[in-house]
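Forum: Protein Structure Q&A
Topic: Joint prediction for protein chains with partners

I've read a bunch of threads here and the consensus seems to be that you should model interacting components together rather than docking separate models afterwards. I'd like to see that in practice. Below is the full input, 748 residues plus whatever partners are listed. Could one of the regulars post the assembled result?
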Amino acid sequence: MEFVFTEEQQMIGETARAFFAENATSERTRKAMAAGGPDAGIDRALWTAFCQELGLSGIGIPESAGGAGLGLVELAIIAEAAGAQVAALPMLGSLALSAQAIAAGGSAEQQAAHLPALLSGEVIAGYVHDAAITADGTSLTGAAGFVAHGGSAQLFVVTSNTGAWLVAADAPGVTVTPLTTMDQTRPYARVTLDGAKGEPLADPAAAIAAAHRAGFVAVAAEALGGAQAALDRTVAYAKERVQFGRPIGSFQAYKHRLADLMIEIEQARSAVYWAACAVDEGSDEAELAVHAAKSFAADTFFLCAGNMIQLHGGIGFTWEHDAHLYFKRARAIQSMLGSGEWHRERIATMILGEVA
Amino acid sequence: MKLGFSAADEEFRAECADWLNAEMAGEFKDIKGITKLTASPERRKEWEQRLGEAKWGCIGWPEQWGGRNATLAQQVIFAEEYARAGVPGRVNHIGIELAGPTILAFGSEEQKRRFLPDIAAGKTIFCQGFSEPGAGSDLASVRTKGRLENGEWVVNGQKIWTSLAHISDWIFVVTRTEEGSKGPKGLTFLMMEIDQPGIEIRGIKQINGDAEFNETFFTDARCPEDSMIGAVGYGWKIAMGLLAFERGVSTLGQQMAFRNELDELIAAARANGAANNPLIRQRIAKAEIGLRLMRYGALRMLSNTDHSKIDGAALTYKIQWASWRRSLGELAMDVLGQAGEVAEGSEYEWDTLPNLFLYSRADTIYGGTNQIQRNLIAERGLGMPREPRGDV
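Posted by a regular:
Agreed with the consensus. Here's the joint model:
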């Protein structure tokens, strides 16, 4: 038992934080937000640099599958760093969900065919999940309304609750409709499958389980990074903004709200790394932990981002200030991959049983 | 980063569990499951001595003073198994968690020899004389006076909220020994024997009908000159050092007691059907999450060896558990409904859950109120300007 980062983990964290702080600037993120077409919500140059120069895209993918090894703890460290800058990248759909699904449930051939291109950033994958998707042989029918960065994807990993398939974005029967999305750093697309050809993944159960575990942990970590950044930026403002002849951070009403945010963030930090560790170690707490992390960190991020606007006053409500980037990302994380209520009901079922 | 325990640690866990379960099934079965801190004090003092004999009293201490030099992981395990076995809380928790570590850190060799073996053996029960009627959150404004007279300290004044003073042997007292001094200056830290004519203890009846806290009056109370820890005028430094010990491994044992409370709440909800109410289910799930995060926050705090930076997990820990427990008390009453407002017999005495509802209102007050915690977090953790001080 040693619940602190190893030296290697600290180094990964420092590298990732420095990379995103330097490159995922507000200016570049806003350019990606304004872009249309396949580049909507993606800083392409940043994605290429992250995948190819930084060499961190393969983390959390086994070396046998062409990844860099390590586990969800390291993946969470990277997602936390990216979340702190609200980086406009397809990391969630392409790596945390799709690549994890292929690595866990794909055959050796499927891994070899797809993972190198996903990890190098040359191909972007979107994760399409809906319980109602049906398969007639290899012909898929169904739809998913909110596929993150779906408008940029060349490949989809499609899952129902029991099946998992690979679908080419340009295959006949696939319709992708990009949607105007509140969080422009991670726009959604509607993906409709009308008899589209799907290549079944070798082990669908493993693919679905891995994608969901990694997805829950990755968005939770991203939320943790965003929450901490929202607090840090508000703290900086509280020190410099003067009203009534005092820095506003000297008012107890103000500083107690900041303290409340820190209390939640510290718990979110425990939640994220507990969950990541529990999955990596195969602990019997892992399932409870990932539900706890996703719901708790998402709510923490929203609380912090909402307070970021409130505690900045009028400037926090402007388009020019970055507060709305955090606020919208936080809201998106609350709803995606299962609401807080859904995750907590999963936990309630574990400890109370089903509703009689 | 690693959460699992080693095979050797798991063996140690089994050893702890075996010993504790055997004691709770044998000679001490009458105290198993007691949750109130004031219940059966004499038997629980005997239990302290039993722990001491078997060297389970203060396992983290050096062997020289009656401990086992236990590793952090072993201390975590013992604390968890202790509560899991239904063993009641330590009546000498002030001695083993606060007085002992303070003497170990700041006491003379002579003082270590005099106090530590007896604390570890469960023979000396300590209580804490910090707060006064006029010095609560503002601890530095204590007025209890100490003066040196013929090689003895003579103490006059009043302390309040001295938990378990009525069953304790010794009290440590922060006194103002420099005439006319103000605030943290001019204070001295003294250890005093309670059984003497100059010390009078009166219980304070609390909102749950129980009396764990006391008023302690000092009227020409005395102790030898060398009962002082540190030096004259260093009382504040010692007191602050002591408060830092409050966030030790014992917090994990406390969490296991919380686990038992949450389990009792879950059992009540299943029994009366509240577990089918979706709103109650959400709140129970939140309570479960909060308790788990408390554990992992504590493990982060205990695993951290880099003390050059502010440890956010440690700084936010008190308000986190206190607020969690207060919410649990409220949830318990929502689960129980009016049945929770009615006691079993004719005495004004409460079962675990209603008692939790009442007692937990103290959790967010003692040991630094939630308001003070928020000041500390904002000032120390986030670098916000300090509260302006009035004229002391």
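The CA atoms of residues 31 and 317 of chain B lie 30 Å apart.
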